Amino acid sequence: MNVLITAATELEIAPFAKKNKSAELFIHGVGATHAIYALSKKLNTAYDVVIQAGIAGSFSREINLGETVLVKRDGFADIGLLQQGKLSSIFEMGLAGENEFPYHNAFLENKHPILKTTGIKKVNAVTVNLINTDENYTQLIREKYQADIETMEGAALHYVCLYQKIPFLQLRSISNYVGERDKGKWKLDEAIHNLCFHLEELVNRF
After folding, report:
1. Among 79, 95, 192, 199, which is most exposed with the fewest C-beta within 10 angstroms?
2. How far apart are CA 163 and CA 150, in angstroms?
């Protein structure tokens, strides 16, 4: 089976890469813009599944630092309008249809069967272009999109793979809570270790 492993940076999957030298790896860069362009070009080649692996921030304290999760739906959270403390999406502004392909109810959903059979926790995610420490804005994003975690590239993977009709998985491990910029409070090493452990488990299922 032809499996592609993608990540924003080499650091996030370094332990997996060191152990699995024959795996096909692709570093698409940080941020949705880089990811969409790079993945669109790369996925002109046929793959049976694409797995994006990386660290993430969690909105929810019910998800432990270092814990690994799979994303069942994602979306671009900061494309829209922020006015007088209200966040409006492009769908609410009438600029796109919330069920216009590849969207379903305004989200980019993943229906891969592994999501139903693995014991890894399943979560809702949002993708943002701006890392911020504004608690009010963070709360707006979390409540509006019912998001558990935040990344900078996840929705790009969903968007491209849904268009290309390529099965995909987004695997994330939680390094920090959203808004916490003191890296002394992060669990980066633990998150990367757990990420690569579960990544290898997933790859071995194909």
Report:
1. 95
2. 22
